[in-house]
Specification:
By secondary structure, the protein is an alpha/beta fold. The protein is built from ten helices and 14 strands. Strand 11, helix 6 and strand 12 form a beta-alpha-beta unit. The protein binds flavin mononucleotide.
């Protein structure tokens, strides 16, 4: 059997294979409480044969929310909702980490408590449109965070990790990718601060590393992963020297002996090759386990793991439409194509109604 399908340990978590379900926002939490529901538990349970599930991104605070109906991990109701999910996974021998999320400026006043402005490293409006309950609308210029507010954000992350452990998760993944708050701080296109969190690469990486340290102290580094997307321009990310920036960040993560580095290789859901960014060179700066993602198919995943280029491979869209993806990959069976119109929001259709092979 190919190495991709063999059991492996990730930090302190034993996995049944090296096939990981990538984090996938589906916008189907309870509309009032942002708590996961029985339907969400059914969806994840159908996918429990993944070596590891990384949950959809989950806001650490009301301020961290940027899309309708995404789950949170800051209230007791949300912890109870997630417990439904983790219990359903564990009953089948699966493993699940939660992805912790603060969207920063990729939000809209209509998604914020009291209709206030979203926050960001600097008051710079991102290009693109916000996804709100009433459709796509212009972003608004966010409010720059005051230095005095930053410890509160680190504390929200720490508390979210504590809540995640109470909700039964096997670990947490810190979302440092795709143009959300931690990525916004790292890149000089979105961070124009003049305090200890802006300017030099060390300063711009400070918030991510403070969050990592707070969460490692809370739950142990062997249960913590970090996701980065150095080559991705999604959500209007720009940086004058991404190789220098991410070399520094990845070396700092390596020193912290976290469970894994999860990298979106290329533009998220887009081209895997981006001029000026050498993912292999960045990856070589990390000594621990490496999860590769972005547009992998069976052959690419098998060869990445066989050659040692990756330790684990995360699949996103294939897991939406193939709940039994591991079995299908093992048998080299045909994969169902996901219906993009049901990615975000709605009910069981396009969510829990994709059949497994046996069905
Ligand atoms: C519907 C959808 C929702 C996504 N939500 C998240 C998310 O919550 N967090 C995240 O880090 N990436 C998210 N992504 C990106 C995926 O994790 C993954 O990086 C991307 O789909 C590329 O992998 P793939 O080619 O295997 O699908 C999402 C992608 C899709 C299609």
């Amino acid at each position: 059997m190919e190495k991709l399908f063999q059991p492996a340990k990730l930090g302190s978590t034993q996995l049944s294979s090296r096939v990981v379900m990538a984090p996938l926002t589906r916008s189907r939490a309870n509309h009032e409480s942002d708590a996961p529901t029985e339907m969400n538990a059914r969806y994840y349970a159908q996918r429990a044969s993944a070596g590891l599930i990384i949950s959809e991104a989950s806001q650490i605070s009301p301020q961290g929310k940027g899309y309708p109906w995404t789950p949170g991990i800051y209230s007791e109701e949300q912890v109870a909702g997630w417990k439904l999910v983790t219990d359903a996974i564990h009953e089948q021998g699966g493993k699940i980490f939660i992805q912790l999320w603060h969207v920063g400026r990729i939000s809209h006043p209509s998604l914020q408590k009291g209709g206030i402005l979203p926050v960001a490293p600097s008051a710079l409006k991102p290009a693109g449109l916000a996804f709100t309950e009433s459709g796509m609308v212009e972003f608004e210029t966010p409010r720059a965070l005051d230095t005095s507010e930053i410890p509160g954000i680190v504390e929200d992350y720490r508390k979210a990790a504590e809540n995640a452990m109470r909700a039964g998760f096997d670990g947490v993944e810190i979302h440092g990718a795709n143009g959300y708050l931690l990525d916004q701080f790292m890149r000089d296109g979105s961070n124009k601060r003049t305090d200890d969190y802006g300017g030099s690469i060390e300063n711009r990486s400070r918030l991510l590393l403070e969050v990592v340290d707070a969460i490692c102290a809370e739950i142990g580094a062997d249960k913590v992963g970090v996701r980065l997307s150095p080559a991705s321009s999604v959500n209007d990310m720009k940086d004058s020297d991404p190789m220098a920036l991410f070399s520094h960040v990845i070396e700092a993560l390596s020193k912290r002996r976290i469970a894994y580095l999860h990298m979106v290789e290329g533009v998220t859901r887009g081209p895997r090759e981006v001029e000026g960014i050498d993912i292999e060179k960045l990856r070589s700066r990390f000594e621990g386990a490496y999860i590769a993602n972005n547009c992998y198919d069976r052959d690419l995943a098998i060869s990445a793991v066989e050659s040692g280029r990756a330790d684990f491979v995360a699949f996103g869209r294939p897991f939406i439409s193939n709940p039994d993806l591991v079995e299908r990959l093992k048998r080299n069976a045909a994969l169902a194509v996901p219906d993009q119109s049901t990615f975000y929001g709605g009910g069981e259709a396009g969510y829990t109604d994709y059949p497994a092979l046996e069905d």
